[in-house]
């Protein structure tokens, strides 16, 4: 039996307890996530608002999956679709989620024509 198997075996019972606690205190956890997001947004003076909102949404989704993992139903244990343009946040936030702002690699230099706003080449 490997290390990972040992860890999984020992954490199995705790998973059920955490899920039960998440179900019982779901509203308090959601409120705490919102409050933490507001504090961080205020301290960063709104500079990272889109990232904070995205992270808060992901944390709420993960907490929701954890809280409802034991439920029997159509969406129990299923993956949550990623937020996209036009999707709204849960009713307690009152806002809409920004378009998916995942990280992308910078464009590759193909040696073609530079963009019109590019500085002139130095030689």
Annotate the secondary structure layout.
Elements: H1 3-24, H2 26-43, H3 49-67
Helix pairs in contact: 1-3, 2-3
Structure write-up:
The protein is mainly alpha-helical and 123 residues long. The protein has a domain at 41-66. Helix content is 48%, strand content 0%. It has three helices and no strands. The protein has helices at residues 3-24, 26-43, 49-67. α1 packs across α3 and α2 (26-43) runs antiparallel to α3. The longest helix has 22 residues, at 3-24. The chain is elongated, with a radius of gyration of 21 Å.
> What is the count of helical runs?
3
Secondary-structure content class = mainly alpha
How would you describe the shape? Answer: elongated
Stretches where pLDDT is under 50 for at least 5 consecutive residues are 72-79, 84-89, 91-95
Largest sheet composition: none
Give the percentage of residues in beta strands: under 5%
Order of helices and strands: HHH
DSSP E strands, number: 0
Which features characterize this protein?
single chain; 123 residues; mainly alpha; 3 helices; elongated
Quick overview:
The chain contains three helices and no strands. With 123 residues, it is mainly α.
């Amino acid at each position: 039996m490997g290390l990972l198997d040992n860890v999984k075996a020992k954490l199995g019972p705790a998973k059920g307890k955490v899920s039960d606690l998440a179900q019982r205190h779901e509203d308090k956890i959601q409120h705490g996530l919102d409050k933490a997001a507001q504090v961080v947004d205020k301290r960063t003076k709104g500079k990272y608002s889109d990232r904070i909102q995205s992270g808060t949404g992901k944390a709420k989704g993960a907490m929701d999956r954890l809280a409802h993992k034991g439920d029997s139903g159509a969406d129990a244990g299923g993956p949550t679709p990623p937020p996209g343009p036009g999707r709204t946040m849960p009713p307690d936030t009152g806002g809409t989620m920004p378009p998916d702002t995942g990280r992308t690699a910078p464009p590759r230099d193909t040696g073609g024509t530079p963009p019109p706003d590019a500085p002139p080449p130095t030689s």
